[in-house]
Design goal:
The complex is a heterodimer. Chain A has helices at about 5, 20-35, 50-55, 65-75, 80-85, 95-110, 140-145, 170-195, 200-225, 235-245, 250-270, 295-300, 325-340, 345-350, 355-365, 380, 385-395, 415-435, and strands at about 40-45, 60-65, 130, 155, 280-285, 305-310, 370-375, 400-405. Chain A is an alpha/beta fold. In chain A, the strands form two sheets. Chain A has a four-stranded parallel beta sheet, sandwiched between helices. In chain A, helix 7 (about 140-145) links the parallel strand 3 (about 130) and strand 4. Chain B is globular and about 60 Å long. By secondary structure, chain B is α/β, with parallel strands linked by helices. The longest helix of chain B has 23 residues, at about 155-175. In chain B, helix 1 (about 5-10) crosses helix 8 (about 190-200), helix 1 packs across helix 9 and helix 13 (about 300-315) packs across helix 14. Chain B folds into two domains: about 5-155, Rossmann fold (3-Layer(aba) Sandwich), CATH 3.40.50; about 155-380, 3-Layer(aba) Sandwich (Rossmann fold), CATH 3.40.50.11900. In chain B, the strands form two sheets. In chain B, strands 2-1-3-4 form a four-stranded parallel beta sheet, with helices on both faces. In chain B, strands 6-5-7-8 form a four-stranded parallel beta sheet, with helices on both faces. In chain B, about 50% of the residues lie in helices and about 10% in strands. Chain B contains 16 helices and eight strands. Classes of the chains: A alpha/beta, B alpha/beta.
C-alpha cells in the first residue's frame, strides 16, 4: 500500500453540485452545537427511519450518529473511537458505526469534553436519543447502550415490513395500524421532551418538503440511465446527505433542484463522468467503504463507471391513497407502501424484492457488471448478498464481485486484495465485451 | 436403559425421533428461536421441532450461500439443511428474532423450501401496540397453518396445548429447583442434554423424560461439600454440551442460566386468559432476549434494574458466585447487551467473564485457560 493511497480517502466527484455537500455535513454538527447553546432540543437519531419529518415538525435538531461514524472514517480518525469502545467491552465485530458512537461518547465522558480534534467539532450532548428498528438491530439497541455514558431520555420505534409472500390484503391494516401507533408513541415522547404539542400543519409541511426532495432525488437517479453516465456512485454517497440528513427541509429541495439541473444538462449533452466509458457498474449493495471512497476512481481508471447504486437510496415515490387525511396516518401508509413496493413483482418472478429491484436497474441502466461490498460488522446490508448474487445470476449473465472490508473499520480492509479482485473483475467485463 | 442413556441417545441423534414421526405420517414443523408458539403447532395436530445447529460439524456447504459474518449458529443450521438433514421438516417457520434469522427465512426458503414456509414478524418494541401487532401476526400464522393442515384450529385444543406446555415449563422449573442444592446432584451438562433433547421430540415425551430424570436425581446421594464456585451462564444458543462441560471440568458447578436454549424459552408460563392468544402474546413477547427493547425506565440504575432484575433474582436464588457470558459471535444485540449486564452484575459483586465464540467445539479448548484463570480468581 503506498503512502498516498493510505492518506487519500475521498473520491473525485463527477458533478459540481456534489462538491457543495461538504459544508452541509459541517452544518449538521454546527447546527446541533448552536441548538444546544440556544436552548433548542437536539436528538441523536437514525436516518431513514421514516420519522425524520416528525423531528423537523417539532423543531428538534437531528444528530445522525451513524453519519458521524462515516465522517470519522472519511477523515481517517476512527481508530481512537473504535479502540475505546472495544476497551469498554464491545466486540470487534459489533457494528462499527455503533462502536465509533459508543467510543466517542465514552471518551467524552472520561474527558468531560468533546475529544480534541474530533471531526467537524464533534457531536454535542443530545437532549434525547431516538432509535428505530428500521434496517438493522443495532439501530434500536445502540442508544440503550449509550446510556452508559450519558443521561438522556431514550425512545425507539419499530418499523415493520411483511415478507413478500404475505397476503398483503390480509395483513395491511394491522401493519399500518401498528406503524401509526409507533409514530404516535414517538410524537408523545417528543412532546414530553419539548413541552410542545406537535402542530399537524407543520408535520404536513415537513412531509411535503420531504416528498418533494425525494421525488427530485428519484428524478435525478432516473436521469442517470443516460449513457455516458452523468453522475457516478461516489457522488451519490455525498449527495445522499441532503435526502437523509436534511429530510423535510427546503434546503434539501433546493439542493436536489440544483443537482437535477446539472445532471439533466450533462445527460442532455452527453457529458459523462469519464471520457471513455467502457463499462457501467451497479453498486449492488452493502454500506460504502467510507475509508476508501477513492476506489471508485480506481475503477474509472479502467473505464468502469458506477452508474447507479442500491444503498442509501431514497425510496421510490409511492402514492398514498387520497382518503388518508391525517399526517401520522400518511407516514404509516407511506412506510407500508415503501416496504412493499417490489412485493408484487417478487411474487410473480424471483420471490425476492431486492432481486426484482436490481433486475429492473440492470435493464434500465444498461449495466455491465455488479459489485457488492460485504462489511464485516454489518449484518443487515451484508448477510444475504451472496444469496442475492446467486439469484441474480439466474436471471442475467453479468460479471459480479463481492469486495470485503467494513464501512469504517480499516483493519478489515486490504488494498492489495481489492486491487487483485478488481483486476479480475475488469478482465471478466472485458471478456464479456469481446464475446459480444 | 438408564434415563441418562435415553436422554443421551436422543441428544446424540437429534432429529431421529422427528424423522420417525414424519415417516409415520405426522407433520413436523421446524422453527427457530423462542418466538414461535409451539402451542399453536401442537393444537393443529402437528409436532414442533426447534431447529438446531451442530458445533462439531464444519460449516462447508453453507459457505457458498451465506456470508461468514452471519451468526454461526444460523449458518450451521442452514448447513445441515443443505446437507439434507432437515428433510423430515414438513414446515419451516422463522420469527423475526434478529437480522440474521430474518435473512435466513428468505435464504432457507429459496434453497431448501419445506412444503410449508412462514415468517412471523415479532416486534422489537414492548408495549400495548406491540402486543396487538404480534397477536395479529399469530392469527395470520394460524390461518396459514390451518390451510396447510387442512383443518381449523379449535380453541379448546389450543387451551389444552397451553396447559401441556405450561406443564412442561413447571417440570423444568421443578428440575431447576434441584440445582439450588450445594453442591447440586445434577450437572449443567446433564441439564443441557435434557433441554436440547427435548427440542426435537413431542412435549409429552419430553415431560416423561424430565420426570424420570428428576426421580433418578432425587435418588442420588447428597454429595459432600466441595467448595467449587457456582456459576450463572448468560448468552444465546448453546445447543451443545461442550462449553458447559468445559466450565464444569475446570472446577465449577453451572447452576443457572439465561440462554435461548435454557430458562429463556421455558421460565415463564403462558398465562391462562379467556382468549388463549392473549396469554401466548404475553408469554412470548415477555421472553427476555436482548433482541427485545424494553421501554426506558428512569435513569441508568433504575433502567438496568428493570432490564436485569430477573437475573439478580436468578443469581441470588441459585447462590451464583460468578457469571460467564457465552456470546455466539455476530449477535449484535447480545454484543450490545453484554457490557450493560456486566456492569449491573459487577454492582451485585458478581465477577463476570465475557466470552465471544464461534459456535464451534474446535475453539472450545482455547477457552480452557481463560475459564481456569477466572475460576481461580474467584476462589
Amino acid at each position: 500500500m503506498d503512502t498516498q493511497s493510505q492518506v487519500k480517502t475521498t473520491a473525485v466527484k463527477g458533478t459540481d453540485t456534489a462538491r457543495e455537500v461538504r459544508p452541509m455535513v459541517k452544518d449538521i454538527y454546527k447546527a446541533a452545537h448552536e441548538a444546544r447553546e440556544n436552548g433548542k432540543k437536539v436528538a441523536y437519531m437514525m436516518v431513514a427511519s421514516h420519522y425524520d419529518e416528525i423531528l423537523r415538525a417539532m423543531d428538534i435538531v437531528p444528530l445522525p450518529t451513524e453519519n458521524y461514524a462515516g465522517l470519522c472514517a472519511a477523515k481517517r480518525d476512527m481508530d481512537r473511537f473504535l479502540l475505546r469502545a472495544e476497551a469498554d467491552g464491545y466486540s470487534q465485530v459489533l457494528c462499527s458505526y455503533a462502536r465509533i458512537g459508543l467510543g466517542f461518547d465514552s471518551l467524552r465522558k472520561e474527558l468531560g469534553h468533546i475529544p480534541e480534534g474530533s471531526p467537524d467539532g464533534g457531536m454535542p450532548l443530545p437532549d434525547m436519543m431516538i432509535g428505530s428498528s428500521a434496517i438493522c438491530d443495532p439501530r434500536f439497541k445502540w442508544y440503550q447502550a449509550t446510556s452508559r455514558y450519558l443521561e438522556a431520555p431514550t425512545f425507539s420505534i419499530d418499523v415493520v415490513a411483511p415478507p413478500p409472500q404475505a397476503d398483503l390484503n390480509r395483513v395491511r391494516d394491522y401493519y399500518i395500524n401498528y406503524q401509526k401507533e409507533q409514530f404516535q408513541g414517538l410524537i408523545e415522547f417528543c412532546e414530553k421532551q419539548t413541552h410542545t404539542k406537535m402542530d399537524k400543519e407543520k408535520l404536513w409541511e415537513a412531509i411535503r418538503l420531504g416528498d418533494k426532495a425525494w421525488q427530485l432525488w428519484y428524478d435525478i437517479d432516473r436521469l442517470r440511465v443516460a449513457i455516458p453516465s452523468p453522475m457516478p456512485s461516489q457522488d451519490h454517497f455525498s449527495i445522499m446527505v441532503a435526502g437523509h440528513y436534511y429530510t423535510g427541509t427546503q434546503k434539501a429541495v433546493d439542493f436536489y433542484q440544483k443537482l437535477y439541473d446539472e445532471v439533466k444538462y450533462k445527460a442532455d449533452n452527453h457529458i459523462g463522468v469519464i471520457k471513455d466509458e467502457k463499462y457501467r457498474i451497479l453498486y449492488g449493495g452493502g454500506l460504502p467503504p467510507w475509508h476508501t471512497l477513492w476506489i471508485f476512481n480506481y475503477f474509472e481508471s479502467f473505464g468502469a463507471v458506477f452508474a447507479i447504486e442500491n444503498v442509501y437510496r431514497g425510496f421510490d415515490p409511492v402514492q398514498v391513497p387520497s382518503h388518508v387525511t391525517d399526517p401520522v396516518d400518511f407516514l404509516a401508509w407511506r412506510t407500508w407502501l415503501r416496504a412493499t413496493a417490489y412485493h408484487e413483482k417478487a411474487r410473480q418472478n424471483s420471490g425476492n424484492p431486492t432481486v426484482e429491484k436490481l433486475l429492473g436497474i440492470i435493464k434500465d441502466y444498461a449495466i455491465d457488471g455488479v459489485m457488492f461490498h460485504a462489511c464485516r460488522s454489518c449484518r443487515a446490508t451484508t448477510v444475504g448478498q451472496t444469496h442475492i448474487k446467486t439469484e441474480l445470476g439466474k436471471y442475467c449473465d453479468l460479471p459480479m464481485m463481492q469486495l470485503v472490508s467494513d464501512m469504517v473499520d480499516l483493519r478489515d480492509y486490504s488494498e492489495a486484495q481489492w486491487k487483485a479482485q478488481i483486476g479480475a473483475f475488469i478482465d471478466a467485463l472485458e471478456a464479456r465485451t469481446d464475446q459480444e | 436403559m438408564s434415563v441418562m442413556k435415553k436422554i443421551e441417545a436422543i441428544y446424540n441423534n437429534r432429529g431421529d425421533r422427528a424423522r420417525e414421526l414424519h415417516d409415520a405420517g405426522e407433520k413436523i414443523i421446524g422453527y427457530f428461536c423462542c418466538f414461535v408458539p409451539e402451542e399453536i403447532i401442537t393444537a393443529l395436530g402437528m409436532i414442533p421441532y426447534r431447529i438446531q445447529g451442530s458445533q462439531t460439524e464444519a460449516i462447508d456447504e453453507a459457505d457458498a450461500l451465506l456470508e461468514p459474518m452471519a451468526c454461526p449458529f444460523a449458518r450451521s443450521c442452514f448447513n445441515k439443511a443443505l446437507k439434507g438433514e432437515y428433510k423430515f421438516l414438513d414446515g419451516f417457520v422463522a420469527p423475526h428474532s434478529c437480522d440474521t434469522i430474518e435473512r435466513m427465512y428468505h435464504i432457507w426458503r429459496a434453497n431448501t423450501p419445506s412444503p410449508f414456509n412462514h415468517f412471523v414478524n415479532v416486534p422489537h418494541m414492548m408495549g400495548p401496540s406491540s402486543d396487538a401487532f404480534y397477536k395479529n401476526e399469530l392469527l395470520y400464522f394460524v390461518s396459514c397453518l390451518e390451510e396447510f393442515a387442512g383443518k381449523k384450529l379449535e380453541i379448546e385444543k389450543l387451551k389444552d396445548a397451553v396447559n401441556l406446555y405450561n406443564h412442561r415449563r413447571a417440570k423444568l422449573r421443578e428440575l431447576y429447583e434441584l440445582r439450588k442444592e450445594n453442591p447440586p446432584r445434577l450437572s449443567g451438562t446433564e441439564i443441557t442434554k435434557l433441554l436440547v433433547a427435548g427440542m426435537g421430540i413431542p412435549a409429552t415425551e419430553h415431560i416423561e423424560l424430565i420426570q424420570e430424570f428428576m426421580d433418578e436425581v432425587r435418588k442420588r446421594p447428597i454429595p459432600e461439600p466441595d467448595g467449587l464456585p457456582r456459576i450463572f451462564i448468560w448468552g444465546n444458543e448453546i445447543d451443545d454440551i461442550a462449553f458447559i462441560q468445559l466450565v464444569e471440568d475446570c472446577g465449577a458447578h453451572v447452576v443457572i442460566d439465561d440462554l435461548c436454549t435454557g430458562t429463556r424459552f421455558f421460565w415463564e408460563d403462558a398465562p391462562k386468559t379467556d382468549d388463549p392468544f392473549d396469554g401466548l402474546v404475553q408469554k412470548y413477547l415477555g421472553t427476555h432476549c436482548p433482541r427485545s427493547l424494553s421501554t426506558q425506565v428512569g435513569e441508568r440504575e433504575e433502567d438496568l434494574e428493570n432490564r436485569f432484575g430477573y437475573i439478580r433474582q436468578f443469581t441470588a436464588d441459585w447462590s451464583a458466585e460468578g457469571a460467564i457470558f457465552y456470546i455466539v459471535r455476530y449477535c449484535d444485540t447480545c454484543e450490545l447487551e453484554g457490557p450493560d449486564l456486566k456492569e449491573y452484575l459487577a454492582k451485585q459483586n458478581l465477577p463476570v467473564l465475557m466470552i465471544e465464540d464461534d459456535y464451534s467445539t474446535s475453539t472450545i479448548g482455547q477457552l480452557r485457560t481463560r475459564i481456569q484463570a477466572f475460576l481461580e480468581m474467584m476462589i
